[in-house]
Amino acid sequence: MNEYGPRPVDRRLPTEEARDLLTLVRDLVEREIRPTAAEQEEAGRFPRQIFTLLSEAGLLSLPYGEEFGGGAQPYEVYLQVLEELAAARLTVGLGVSVHTLACHATAEFGSKEQRATHLPAMLGGGLLGAYCLSEPSSGSDAASLTTRAVRDGDVWTLDGTKAWITHGGVADFYTVLARTGDQGPRGITAFLVPGDADGLTAAAPERKMGMKGSPTAQLHFDGVQVPDARRIGEEGQGFAIALSALDSGRLGIAACAIGVAQAALDEALAYTASRQQFGRPIADFQGLRFMIADMATQIEAGRSLYLTAARLRDAGQPFSKEAAMAKLFCTDTAMRVTTDAVQLLGGYGYTLDFPAERYMREAKVLQIVEGTNQIQRMVIARHLAGPESR
Predict the structure, then answer these.
(1) Left, alpha or beta for 332 (phi > 0: left; psi -120 to 50: alpha)?
(2) Is 370 in the active site?
(3) Out of 39, 113, 370, 388, which one is annotated catalytic?
(4) For tag attachment on the chain, is the N or C end more exposed, with fewer CB atoms within 10 Å?
């Protein structure tokens, strides 16, 4: 009988240091994350101890500079680490991506004093961050947010509600976008808010179809006071800071999507190699072989797309269009591949005894978060054809 089944991803890494890093990540994944992922997700348990371990291992700081405790790794490497983490448990991979997004404003737009004061703990001190842009009535139209910050001397008072916040209620710090001026994108400012600030409360976590171990909740700001020293960037610069972060964050979602898709393909390969019908493995049947070939091709294409965008970012070149393309294609790929994986497992794919159904449920949210795929198409079209006529 022929040998079938999943094979390790053949990664093109720029340095031996990066190769050693990926080896460390795979060892950690197999020891600490994968063995309990299904059980923990079904129980809805948030893996805070895993994030502490990742922080201690330097895996929450990979794309940031060494000056304040970062790993100084290029995005090309960081994203492949995310892919490995997401393949084992999306709650962890996406959580690292969200934490990285939450650190972006301070790392890229904070003053030298702010970076020195906050970044060491944010990057390697065991803290976990969250990113607060969306609101109950402000999702895709982020520039219409209504959470307001009012200044009195050197103190800002924040009032309003944020929605769909990953790590809402468990994060140690929040990067918050609030309105400090007139309506529209120029009236928004960024703030770094401690998780234990007076007046900051979290609603009960949303009841979701997937990623049950990752809390997603509304946050209520009721007279939350923040010193001006925690304002990030200039007044009115917040929306530009948010868009800058989202370009990078979309690459994180793309990498997580390919991780989930790869995990689903690996599960399908293992199952079709062991499942026998008519006296031979079902992996011998042409119809199934064609499905597997299509799944693998889509995954490789998605991986190449997100890495191309990452290399543009690493080279300091514009990458917004490519990031939107990667997020769009990779998350759509994850949805197709996980659906096909359930089909390849037949009735077993629809049961909790195999992880294929979990991958399918998790893939869906990746088409929604950090800009729906309809928004990604709008972003891509604007780069190609210019702004829409008014």
Answers:
(1) alpha
(2) yes
(3) 370
(4) C
